[in-house]
Specification:
Two copies of one chain form a homodimer. Chain A is α/β, with parallel strands linked by helices. The first copy, chain A, is built from eleven helices and twelve strands. Helix content of chain A is 37%, strand content 25%. In chain A, the strands form three sheets. Chain A has a six-stranded mixed sheet, with helices on both faces. The first copy, chain A, has a four-stranded mixed sheet with strand order 2-1-5-6. In chain A, helix 3 packs parallel to helix 5. Chain A is globular.
Amino acid sequence: MAFDAIETPFGKVDSIIGGSAIYVAYAASNFVKPVQQVSIVGYDFPAEEMAELKRRGVQLEGVEVIPDKKSFFWSGRYHEDMNTRDTLITDLNVLADFDPKLPDSYQGAEFLMLGNLQPKIQLSVIKQLKKRPKLIVMDTMNFWMEVAMPDLEETLKQVDLLMVNDAEARQLTGQFSLVKAAKTILQMGPKYLIIKKGEHGALLFHGDDVFFAPALPLEEVFDPTGAGDTFAGGFIGHLAKTGDISFENMKRAIIVGSAMASFCVEKFGANRLKEVSMKDISRRIEQFKELVSFEIELV
Amino acid sequence: MAFDAIETPFGKVDSIIGGSAIYVAYAASNFVKPVQQVSIVGYDFPAEEMAELKRRGVQLEGVEVIPDKKSFFWSGRYHEDMNTRDTLITDLNVLADFDPKLPDSYQGAEFLMLGNLQPKIQLSVIKQLKKRPKLIVMDTMNFWMEVAMPDLEETLKQVDLLMVNDAEARQLTGQFSLVKAAKTILQMGPKYLIIKKGEHGALLFHGDDVFFAPALPLEEVFDPTGAGDTFAGGFIGHLAKTGDISFENMKRAIIVGSAMASFCVEKFGANRLKEVSMKDISRRIEQFKELVSFEIELV
């Protein structure tokens, strides 16, 4: 949970609520309540944002508030193509000493989504859960492959599903072919792998099975910040709602995640996610069905 | 119809049969016969290749043979990522004076596929047909946008479907968003547009309708040369076989084209295309169905 300053070809915001946990919570809370948030913020994190999260069924007992420090701050500028961005500022602030303590009330959680963070911290959350969740999903990034690979490998052994983008899958394995990269990653711990390809959709791998979900072709991507986390939130939200972790249901969860991500990019930060109704979401999922459905008789 | 020298990270060939018309013919002849070829070759084009094409139902009356000149020759080297390549040599040879004359026996053709070439030559073929075909499909490339834009615009007005890659769609319109680029192109003449995104699949646009077909995630892309032309051949081959140019059937045709392209990249040149059976093709199409099919109940 953080503040972001974002500049895109379409405009800029100097300070907007962001961070993985925010996007995951806003997306997932459409499908399942409560969402039990684990994060850390500073004195500057707005009370009205906390209240809004609570209204949506997000529990905040696991969100530590540090009275004399500022919240994590990230500032970035997107290039014309919206696929690449420069990080301008990263102020860790409260995140520098983050050592999450899981509240007792969170014990028994069936679905665990580990947002991108030090693999050691991700692992510590897993270890604090007395009963292993039904599904542990983990996000990570290239930075941890560079500075904390042994920790990352250890954490990977404890998760069920890894979610990375194509460049990260390649870096993690040294394989250019995503199919080969997937095979390698599926031997590192996770039984499931999602490779996110941004505007080019996402791939789900499990054993020899593979599923592909497109991204919705959008006229305008206003701000891609948080799209990956929103995807993750929609994905695990759908799984938690249905309690079904079969490959078939994961396909649906990916479509739900893609639909949520397609909303996320329409406005700055999580602004669009705060507005969308279940009716909007259903309509968007219908668009995904139309986008890829075809009937073909085999010769 | 040409000779190519190709170098990929996996190997090299000094001289292999290639050219748009070869790939289109090999792909389309699986679905429809005859394929009436219009092209030009030199004295060096092998008789056994001509015989093989004839065996597959490709008519060669429209293929001019120049006795004192060499066939078109292209040489290129692919980078490690297989998505980008350097052209090393382009010897136009016979192609420098190509002025196709449509044989009378080709009159009445219902489906016309215009491979990438000077827009003026593409237009001349259209004009030589006394009865307008049911569907005219056109491929082009960035080069013609740079050196022959007025001709390209004129030709575009005469075709039903344009097939370009994402970079070409952007260059043709000056729009980065493919959705916006599509809208612009659909006002330039074609009623249908296919944007090929290589390993990221292909999009079909028509009015407000859009369909997305993935590329098959492949363990290894051995040689991408001709994949786009093979896609085109499978696409128009399926349409010609069924005689149905509805949007629904174009979706199927795109899947067929994608399946054919997925074979093409498995070996150098058109080698793999020469081997595959209808059974192989059906099995591959089945993989595409599995790759994207999902069932979801709307909330």
